[in-house]
Design a protein that fits this description.
alpha/beta; D-Maltodextrin-Binding Protein, domain 2; 2 domains; eight-stranded mixed sheet; globular
């Protein structure tokens, strides 16, 4: 992703706007922490983070309101953040499985979230802990599928603790570790992200991604212009640049489905990212305002009852 930004996305903007952009890498939580540390004298102009941390950044007042632009009317509803930020790439959290292993065992691909509780997956299944976004998505989706939701998380804890946890070989929030577990044939099925599955699939590994029948959780890569930054006009223009069909096509090569409905994809990329109106309807938008408020409490409970 960093290479894509430095070799294509940034140079194309610099050429049109006669500016120089410095790319600062970092995971989403680190970037929000940096905004907090630099409050009142921000050094960053635009930030691009996952949706959970982006809602925190908005809540804390670090994002400037987006200026009006025609491109925003083309963005899918699932990628809208109330005018303070905008989604620039779509990822889905669903089910990943080893196609070759399933064929060897004569197993049909899983279709529902609840299918993963099948005893045949005992010690052949893995997913993230609650410290990772995929773990949060799993908890929320199991709550929703079993009669609850973000405001009633009890069904999620109950299902995972009693029915899912016995199948788990290990809990890991490291995408690299999870990919390694698939490659070493330690696991055959997992709750994982569509972009991660696509990256592993491009290496030739026989992995497939399933959008569960109840919906896949949306993981939205979002951008916002930072408040009181040194280049407000260029910052607004860069956010709009990220939504241009050309940049959206480039982002798709790294596994992020386009949020601009006018973007056109073809071939292998179109088949392996959330693409088009039909796929966006399969994505469930998580209420991160509730999740962020409850996450510390949920994490303590998770550590006591699930990963004890």
């Amino acid at each position: 992703m960093q290479r894509l930004f430095q070799e294509k996305i940034i140079p194309s903007f610099e050429a049109d706007h006669k500016v120089k952009i410095t790319y600062v890498s970092g995971i989403s939580s680190e970037i929000v922490a940096k905004l907090q540390a630099q409050r009142g004298k921000q050094e960053l102009n635009v930030v691009i983070v996952d949706d959970g941390p982006m809602y925190q950044a908005i809540q804390y007042g670090y994002c400037e309101s987006l200026t009006s632009a025609p491109v925003y009317s083309d963005v899918y509803e699932v990628a809208r953040f109330g005018g303070k930020a905008i989604g620039v790439g779509l990822n889905a959290t669903g089910i990943a499985y080893n196609k070759a292993a399933f064929a060897k065992n004569g197993w049909a691909p899983p279709r529902s979230w609840n299918d993963l509780a099948d005893p045949k997956y005992n010690q052949r299944f893995t997913t993230s802990s609650l410290s990772g976004t995929y773990g949060v998505h799993a908890l929320v989706m199991y709550a929703r599928v079993n009669g609850g939701g973000e405001r009633n998380i009890e069904p999620g804890f109950d299902f995972i603790g009693k029915k899912l946890a016995p199948n788990v070989l290990s809990w890991s929030s490291s995408p690299a570790k999870l990919a390694e577990m698939f490659q070493n044939r330690d696991v055959d099925v997992a709750i994982w992200g569509s972009s991660r599955v696509y990256a592993l699939k491009k290496t030739g590994f026989p992995i497939e991604f399933v959008y569960p029948t109840e919906g896949a959780a949306a993981l939205v890569l979002a951008a916002c212009p930072v408040v009181q930054n040194s280049a407000p006009e260029q910052s607004q223009a860069f956010v709009q640049h990220l939504l241009s069909p050309q940049v959206q096509q480039w982002l798709a090569t790294e596994g992020f489905g386009p949020t601009n409905s006018k973007t056109r994809l073809t071939g292998d990329v179109a088949e392996n990212v959330p693409y088009g109106a039909d796929f966006t309807k399969k994505l469930v938008k998580v209420d991160w305002d509730v999740v962020n408020q409850k996450r510390a409490e949920w994490t303590n409970r998770w550590n006591r009852t699930i990963e004890r």
